[in-house]
Amino acid sequence: MSTETVYTIVDDLGALLLFTMILILAAGQIYRAIYAVAAQSFLIAVAGAVLAMATGNTDLWVIAGITLAVKAISLPWVLHWVVRKMNVRREVEPVIPVALTLAFAVMVVVMAFHLSGSLGPVRQAITGNALPVGIALTLLGVLVMATRKTAMHQMVGLFASENGIFFTAMAVTKGMPLIIEIGVILDVILAVLVMAIMVLRVRSTVDADIAGLDRLRG
Amino acid sequence: MAETLLWVIPLVPTVTALLMFTTRDRRILSAIDVGGSTILAVLALVLAREVRVGGPRALGIFRIDDLGLVFLLLLVVLTLAVSIYTVGWLKQALAVGNMKAESVRSYFALVHAFVATMVVTVLADNLGVLWIAMEGTTITSAMLVGYHGHQHGLEAAWKYIIVTTIGISFGLFGTVLVYAAAAAVPGGVAAMSWSAIMKVAPGLDPSIVRIGFIFVMVGYGTKAGLAPMHLWLPDAHSQAPTPVSALLSGVLIKCALLGIIRFQTIAAAACGPAFTSMVLVVFGLTSVVVATPFILAQRDVKRLLGYHSVEHVGIVVLGLGFGGPVGTYGALLHVVNHGVTKALAFFGAGTAIARYGTRDMRVIRGLFAVAPIGATFLMLAALSLAGVPPFSIFVSELLVLRAGIGHGHWLAIGIFLTMVAVIFAGILHHVGAMAFGRPTAAATREPEAWSPLLAMLLLAAIMILLGITIPASVDGLLRRATGVIVG
């Protein structure tokens, strides 16, 4: 593949990633947010495969495979399982209206592109528009976590944030060391398991969402 | 010898953690706990001697220099003190039902796993490994924060794990950007090793490193408890079991500071020290200012100490921001002083909480009449935390102040002094009311347990010693560590 083609593909994937992010931000039902973040992780895995083909970096194949298995399939499945186990009936309203959230999101995306547009030599270090897309995804993940007071939405936001980092990390020209990426994914898995345990523990003792508890103040 | 130690030292707490599963007897578990911490401390001292003689050592992803050594020694001393304290604390906690006998061994195992991850953050040369270990500390300590299992503990644990995980994902982003910059320079490095990146640091693209450093500052700053990312800290510090609070406040937030310092040296070389100095001063001042009203209005003694940590982390970062040999030396000394003093304060507060069965400072009254030795230690720690001479924190705050004056940060100095004066009054008012006055009916008066007192004696001795005079060996270590940062 020529460099130009790779840039185009990475940019197109970046656009799709931002689209899935909008789906997550706008999702009312938690299931939709989970499907959207799974799709997002799948796109990250595709990006990994494309970059692996283009650069001949075999480590990226491994990372793409792990991303597919862990972030696109296993962890969304865990989230899905926890949601079923929690048996949530009512929807929790976002702290601010979805329309306003989306307006914020647009501002964040524009800002991210503006910021990395001001960087000259970043093109040599990171392929295509992976940097602004990565920054935007990371910040928008935080936006999801800040505007939704349910544990599940917060975990989805966390995933989206980490997807943004992974997308940028894959596009770094020389690639990240494989062992580091594996360590990072391992940390993510452990963190999700611990969070799931906490969510279920609170659900089993009081009928409340752990993220909705607000007794500790001041 | 020293190279082997680099691998052995992280293994010691790991093995200690695994050994916990061999028994259920509380006495044996406590013995393993203290034994493991003692071995860790001895090995760290041996390593310190080796480094003093032979300079920095590296082995694979691990590396130890004088800077890392400051943090490693603080870590092992506090871990040992915490282990000794836990002996008596655990007995009392089991007696009143705060801890359950069947979960004691997993508690010990988690504490040592937590220590192991912190040791790796200090020894890591590879910035990716630093990040992985930092996230590891979050996972292990989040389980400890919620260990009491009640609703408040779990709420604090959730807030802790969510806020710090999202926080340090910013740190990972910053790490990726700095690595991208390092990989892009001609003849650049395809490794994430700090020492390798430092060699090419002056040639890194400043604009990428600038964004990277801000991401890292937000990321590891969350973990360090810098305002406005400190939201998790008072909750976690107040809800965790007291020995864990001491580790969180004394060691963990210092490990995050070491992460910030590592990136500060890279960014200062790439973008010039003026940029890092500005970022650090802004975050430091914000922390000191934000913590002040919460310290004044606080009723929960452990939350008070938590907000106080926000203030002191702010002072360390201010010292780093003012920079120069004086400011950096002051900041490193403050790291040691605050770690030791804050652990002592948590121990003292923990003893008081055990007596009165509450963390509410309006109920804890007349501690001197109830537990005179423990009250003395708590009072000493509070005087030191407030910045009274001749205690150690006074010395390091003065150094930070001098660096600020030397570099003409007049506005920052003005705000800093005002806040420190207000906090001085606030903390003495709070602790004075706890120590003196008429004891409330809730308090029990049996004799004080020896092990918490021994742990407090150890820390108080270090605290007073560092206040009166800084021993030549400590002074030399801090000077060489300052040299690593300032260059």
Descriptive report:
The complex is a heterodimer of chains A (218) and B (487). Chain A is mostly helical and 218 residues long. Chain A has eight helices and no strands. Chain A has one domain (3-90, 98-211). Chain A has helices at residues 3-26, 30-55, 58-86, 98-117, 122-125, 130-147, 151-171, 178-205. The radius of gyration of chain A is 18 Å and the shape is globular. Chain A starts with a helix and ends in a 13-residue tail after the last helix. In chain A, 48% of the residues are buried. Chain B has 487 residues and is mostly helical. Chain B has a domain at 273-487. Chain B has helices at 2-19, 26-54, 66-96, 104-123, 127-145, 151-184, 194-200, 206-224, 232-239, 242-271, 273-296, 301-322, 324-356, 367-370, 372-386, 392-406, 410-435, 450-468, 472-486; strands spanning 57-59, 62-64. Chain B has a two-stranded antiparallel ribbon. In chain B, β1 and β2 (62-64) form a beta hairpin. The longest helix of chain B is centred in the middle third of the chain and has 34 residues, at 151-184. Chain B starts with a helix and ends with a helix. The model of chain B has no long low-confidence stretch (mean pLDDT 92). At the A-B interface, α5, α6, α7 and α8 of A face α5, α6, α8 and α9 of B.
